[in-house]
């Protein structure tokens, strides 16, 4: 059957079909306006520079399993950067071990540690939270740490570490450059222009 015959057959079959009037779709040609919930989340994301430990809740965390691989990537982080972090290809310049700490102490230590790393321009770190197989509930520290890191806007991404660096009991964490380091870099580039 030729294309022309197929087309004629199609037209013949569709001759009694009437187009549906669509009045339920809104015109979306205008610029996107964030919802109130999106604005609240954006404002709630905590910067390390002015972080308050009380902001990171001790009340509730979505519980995960001890052997669950954890991964988080903030919008805008390139897939290649995240893949490199996941594969342990970045040099880990600092380490924090949370074993035997209470949740409150761990929360304070994480904020202190990440602030210090950012000040020293350390971008990739490892946080050892343990698997929590014997905690009640299981993986309690792991669950809270993952939730807290997502609430800190200076954390770009994290992923469970490779087995030799703690596996599912540790996280590789990548931080944003501090504002001071961003300004230094910009000034250095501007001063080297001809």
TrEMBL record:
Record domain Smr: where: 96-176
This protein's record includes keyword Aminoacyl-tRNA synthetase: no
InterPro entries listed in its UniProt record: Endonuc_SmrA (IPR047688), Smr_dom (IPR002625), Smr_dom_sf (IPR036063)
Transmembrane residue ranges: none
GO molecular function (one): endonuclease activity
The entry's keywords: Endonuclease, Hydrolase, Nuclease
Electron transport in keyword set: no
Protein name listed in UniProt: DNA endonuclease SmrA
């Amino acid at each position: 059957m030729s294309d022309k015959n197929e087309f004629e057959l199609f037209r013949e079959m569709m001759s009694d079909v009437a187009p549906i009037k669509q009045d339920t779709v809104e015109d979306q040609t205008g610029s996107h306006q964030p919802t109130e919930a999106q604005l609240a989340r954006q404002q709630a994301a905590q910067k390390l520079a002015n972080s308050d430990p009380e902001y990171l809740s001790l009340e509730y965390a979505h519980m995960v399993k001890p052997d669950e691989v954890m991964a988080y990537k903030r919008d805008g982080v390139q897939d290649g950067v995240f893949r490199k972090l996941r594969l342990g290809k970045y040099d880990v310049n600092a380490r924090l071990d949370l074993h035997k700490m209470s949740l409150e102490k761990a929360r304070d230590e994480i904020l202190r540690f990440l602030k210090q790393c950012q000040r020293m321009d350390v971008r990739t770190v490892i946080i050892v939270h343990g698997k929590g197989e014997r905690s009640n509930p299981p993986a309690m520290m792991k669950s809270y740490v993952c939730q807290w890191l997502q609430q800190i806007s200076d954390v770009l991404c994290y992923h469970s570490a490779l087995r030799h660096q703690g596996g599912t009991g540790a996280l590789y964490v990548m931080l944003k450059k501090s504002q001071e380091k961003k300004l230094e870099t910009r000034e250095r580039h501007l001063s080297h222009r001809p």
